[in-house]
Amino acid sequence: MNTEKISGLQLFYIMSGYILGTAIILGLGQEMKQDAWLLIAFGMSAGLILMAVYTKLASYYPGDTLVQMLPKIMGKYLSYPIIILYILHFTYSASRACRELGALIITTILNETPIIIVIGSFILLMIYCLRGGVESFGRVVEIVFPIYIFSLLFIWILLLTVDHVNVKNLTPILGEGVKPSLIKAFPNAINFPFGESIVIMMFFPFLSNKQHVRKVGMCSLILGGILLIINSIMMISVVGAEIYSLDAFTLLTATQMVSVADFLERFDALVILMMVLGVFFKAGAFFFGAAVATSQLFRLKQNRSVLLGLGTIIAPLSVVSASSYVEHLEFGFEYYVPYFLSFLQIVMPIMLLCVALIRKIISR
Amino acid sequence: MGRLRWKKNFTSKIQSYHDNLQVPLEKDQLSGNLEEDFIHIQQLFEGAEDFAHRKLNICSTYSAIIVYLNGLVNVERMEFHVINPLISNNGELLKGTEPTMDHIKSIMSSAQVSHGRTIQEVIDQILSGGTILLVHGVKEALFISEQSWEQRSVEEPLSEAVVLGPREGFTENIRTNASMIRRRLKTTKLKIEFMKIGTHSQTEVVITYLEDIAQPSIVKEVRSRLSGIEIDSIEDSGYIVEFIEDEPFSVFPQVLQTERPDRVVGNLLEGKIGILVDNSPFVLIVPVSFFEMMNSPEDYYGRFIITSFIRFIRYLFLFIALLFPSIYIAVTTFHQELLPTNLLFSVASSREKVPFPAVVEALLMEITFEALREAGLRLPKPIGSTVSIVGALVIGQAAVEAGIVSAPLVIVVATTGIASFMFPNYALTGAIRLLRFFMIFFAAMLGFYGILLGVLFILVHLVQLRSFGVPYMAPVAPTKFNNFKDLIIRAPWWKMELRPQQTGKRNVKRLASRNRKY
Amino acid sequence: MIKVTRMFSIGMMTLILLTGCWNRIEINDIAIVTAMGFDLTESDEIHLSLQVAIPSKLGSSGPTGGSSEKSTFVISETGSTIAEAFRNIQGKLARTIFFSQSRIVIIGEELAKKSVSHVIDFQTRYAEPRINSFIMVTKGEAFNLIKSIPKFESISAEEMKEMAKLDVSLKIYIRDFLNMLLTDGIEPFAPKIILKPLEVNTKNKSENTLAVDGIAVFKKDKLIGWMSAEETRGLLWLRNEMEKGVITTKVPDDKGGGYISMEIDRAEVKVVPIIKNQDLKIDVNIITELSVIENDSQLELFDTKVIEDIQKEINNQIKNRVQMVVDKGQKEYNSDIFGFGNLVYQKYPKEWNANYKNNWDQKFQELEVSIQSKALIRRIGLTK
User: Fold this and answer.
1) How far C383 CA lies from chain B's nearest CA (Å)?
2) Residue B26 and residue B485: Cα distance in Å, rounded?
């Protein structure tokens, strides 16, 4: 496994796509209505700080994944439960991304197809891709990511042609005051999707040029964040703040408004394409992270069988974990993201960095 | 379990035949006794009635014998350059001394003369069209190369037609082919390595590359893969392709087959390696990437702006050839909301009387189309056009009128057909045609989502492919922005300063940057 | 490696074999709905009527030209909810009802008076109907409009769509309606579509045709009244959507009488709420550029003085027109269809939340709206 390398560009694509992933379709910061984009901006800046923590850790333990550095920092016995928590996080998050894909596909285009078929076939694709290692994943992303960005830009251009695109929908900015907004923003906006970039720590050892670690991490976060901000601004301008805050799949709703010359309309397919690709980045990165973590935890030489095993877990998990999409979202944004992820993505890395610093000082 | 054991037995049985592929070599040396050696050779050729021989006396003293195969030798030239001088020589040179081959050589006016000592060499020479001179008392045989057999002259390549650009194509003769390459690269850096493959056919295979550009590791890999081939006979370079490909189970061609010397030379200059095979007008080029398969040699001769446009069209039609029928199926059976209202009405009205589901309809038409295409190819040329007329009438007209297929589908299939004729590479066309059916199944299963999954499956497969260690999707994945100058956009020649990085990194610069700086 | 490949292919095989075609529906098994009408029956049930296209009468390759035969038919059914009515219709139809191509939603007067929220909810929640459908309200029954016979197009729904898109009226998508419904400080409205006789001033009974004639004014989700076509133009001014239009002004008799008609080239409207000393005021500034297209008065237009006079006249006229609409909205209906409240919120969010949000109904009625108009005649046409 370790002989495979990905280039800085590939990792940059993976991480940017990963951040955009599901977030761009679902509509971030819906509870903030017209200030959603500010929430994203806030999340992005906090995410950048977190990324600095992650890359600092990576620079202390170059060539180690998160799972490999944990025992070195925390000691062998203390680290195992945490590693298992991270594996759970990656696995469950991958299954969440799949569930969101499934929900979109089922509610929009294939409403009679069993969701397990939609997710299962996707997981098969993921296994086939990751079986070729991180190299194969990186290369597919290299081809697919530009297409993803182009379709996003294309959708934006189309959205500008919609009647009554009104930037005034964004006003008043922070009408409720800064404080309540920040309180609403606090853990969720950081954790999703920016904090989730902790998975990048599973990729660092595979990077061919180690100097680029920080640059890649930061750039992908910034690109992803800026695109998300622009996107939410576009969405609010097109559909209005109220619908934005209500809608389950905002980008899809906004795209349905497009009708150029009565013929260039119904670009739903493009949104479905973006969703599939977005989840491909996201679930792929989580899936890969979980597979590497598992094989490193059990010191396996190859992770093909791990991939198969995880695949057979993720697919049913994404279906079973919530009986309805509402339950899925509720559990996600009221329990999983604020508590579980805050611990793993904010508290834990900062703690790790402190311990690592102390260890460094002592050893000197 | 039982099945497995059977399989094991079966394979081991085959293996017991397998390893005796090498034909035992004749190890005997020539004895010097003319009669004995000749009978030995004659026995080996027993039953081959094209085996010819002529006895003669050199300088009317030494008895000698000439052996050759009828039809492979230019008899006229042999009479003039070999037999005539030998017989008419007055013998001054040889007087008194034992005859040596050097003496005899000096009498003849033939240009290509060599000699050997073993029976095996003699046989090899006879079989490859040489003429053998055996002289009594000499333990060597003289090999005179006066081959001549019927061969096709250099013609315009059929499979890669161009409007602008050289018109000559390779022939079946490997010497002619090698000479065509040599003529275009007048440098000592051009290496031409001969080897023989095939226990029975003894087909000559040539590895050619530019020493200062090609990477030695790839050359070595080519050499070792070629020498690993053990087979009785090579009929065409297509045989070799399957033996040396990295992933033989892929539908995508990983070796470029070309009929054009200019294309081979162009590729050699990019650090590629050419493999010439005797009796085949198709030269193999390795390593090769997917995007090079999509290029036509004419791309480099025409104006670059127009070329770029045409390339763009070509990629567009790649998608049409691959996806159009499946998109039709997805849209008409899953996502009717994606069609503009009026278009939906006209599609719906034309499908109103069609008895089949859209998938069946599409499959029916696609398969018929493939059959037509195959029939048109296999038939003798004069009848070939009949097939297309009948096909057009049957499919285009009658089927629609009878209400068996809908008119929009005919348009779809026809467009797809045209699209699949657009690719410059025949092998790639095959891959796309096959994958089209694969995509139809995906679309019929899961609609647009299925198409997306199918395309992603193909992409994942493509990025995992390698051609002699070079990633198949280079320079897109892994991305090398420098090489984008010759991808969809073909930059003007004076801007393509660097060779492709994957194969040409040893000697990166291909032209000086001072071009057009006047 | 081989094992994985084998497992993978087995997985694929089962997938292919298992997947029947859950969602597969042939294009000739769907009933394409082109327009939807919603009415209220006397027993308080919803009466859903659908205009369904008959593809074989529509396509170019159809055996008949289709001009003599109808290319659509109307099917309707009642139910206590829309979904129920829709299910009841499905029971009468051999093909699956398919909403995605429908861009027209017509709501009957009675239903609109009761509430339109379930119509809007159905349109946005159910996956098939599109959010960019046009919503229209009719006086009387929507059913009659759904049944109307088209003039140009083969389907009357197409004509309605084209009509909804014309610049003379307001384009209201479901999106807009929902937005107005949900946003504080703005009340929804929708174009009013009716059947009008095709020819006027003739003695023979004329055929009826579709016409957009003013708007329907809502308060929350209930219809409370109508505005005429003329008043609607005032609303267009206020919404800054006046793009095409003709203004005719009467020349006073002492100057020779007669009329001058002008075309609007460009109109720019700024509606600005101002809070001064706790007093809320709405400033409306209208700048219009016009060109003369008809002059049957005695006035010589090639004279700046004359032009200025006419501009003054037009200013008054525009002011009156806008004032009339504002008055009607404030006094008669007490419905803030102009979105003044929302403008206040956008500019003064704190004050809005503190003072106006909860009693906007009352404040809106007392709101002071001052209108300034500046008309500029840029061109006087080809003749002097």
Assistant:
1) 44
2) 56
Interface test with A, best of B323, B336, B449 (most A CBs within 10 A): B449
CB contact under 8 A, B446 and C19: yes
Task: ipTM value, please give it.
Answer: 0.93
Q: Collapse the DSSP code of A41 into the 3-class scheme (helix H, G, I; strand E, B; otherwise coil) and give the result.
A: helix
Residue B456 forms contact with A (CB below 8 Å): yes
The whole-chain average pLDDT of chain B stands at 85
- Contact residues on chain A for C131, CB-CB shorter than 8 A: 239, 253, 256-257
Give the chain C residue whose CA is nearest to the CA of A172.
C346
Give the integer Cα–Cα distance in Å for C18 and A124: 15
**Which residues of chain A are at the B interface, by a Cβ-Cβ cutoff of 8 Å?**
7, 9-10, 105, 109-110, 113, 117-118, 121-122, 125, 128-129, 132, 136, 138-140, 142-144, 262-263, 265-266, 268-269, 272-273, 276, 280
CA–CA dist A195, A175 (Å, integer): 27
Task: Judge whether residue A111 has pLDDT over 50.
Answer: yes
Burial A170-190 (b: 16+ CB within 10 A, else e): bbbeebeeeeebeeebebbbb
**Neighbouring chains to A with at least 3 Cβ pairs closer than 8 Å:** B, C
Q: To 5 degrees, how large is the angle CA C111–CA C112–CA C114? A: 65
Q: Read off the DSSP letter of residue B486.
A: B
A187 DSSP β-pair partners: none
The answer to whether the predicted template modeling score (pTM) of the entire model surpasses 0.80 is: yes
Who has greater pLDDT, B128 or B18? B128
Residues with Cβ within 8 Å of residue C210, at least 6 apart in sequence: C145, C148, C156, C159, C160, C163, C193, C194, C195, C196
DSSP state of B278: T
Q: What percent of chain A has pLDDT over 90?
A: 25
The per-residue pLDDT for A185 is 67
3-state secondary structure of C368: strand
Q: Which of A263, A266, A276 sits opposite B338 (nearest CB)?
A: A266
Mean of pLDDT values over B232-259 = 91
Query: Under an 8 A CB cutoff, do B333 and C16 touch?
Result: no
The residue-averaged pLDDT of C154-167 equals: 77
Q: Is the pLDDT at B2 greater than 60, yes or no?
A: no
Q: A34-48, B245-259, C162-176 — which one is most confidently predicted on average?
A: B245-259
Any A CB within 8 A of B344 CB: no
Minimum Cα–Cα distance from B357: chain C residue: C26
pLDDT of B166-193, one tens digit each?
A: 889 999 989 889 999 999 999 999 999 9
Q: Which residues in chain B are closer than 8 Å to A143, comparing Cβ atoms?
A: 459, 463, 473, 476-477
DSSP reduced 3-state for B51:
strand
Kindly report whether the peptide bond that precedes residue B408 is cis, defined as omega within 30 degrees of 0: no
Looking at residue A30, what is its pLDDT? Answer: 76
- Is C245 a residue whose pLDDT tops 80? no
Q: How large is the average pLDDT for residues B141-161?
A: 83
Lowest mean pLDDT among A85-99, A258-272, B229-243, C133-147: A258-272
Contact: C24, B357; criterion CB under 8 Å: yes
Block residue for tokens 């590693």: A83
Helix, strand, coil content of chain B in percent (nearest 5)? 50, 15, 40
Rounded CA-CA distance B132/B153 in Å is 28
CA B289 to CA B268: how far, in whole Å? 14
The shortest CB-CB distance from B348 to any of C19, C59, C103 is to C59
What pLDDT shows up at residue C20?
57
Residue A176 with chain C: CB contacts under 8 Å? 349, 353
3-class SS at A230? helix
Q: Is the dihedral of CA C148, C149, C151, C156 positive or negative?
A: positive
Q: A108: which chain C residues are within 8 Å (Cβ-Cβ)? A: 127
What per-residue confidence (pLDDT) applies to C169?
66
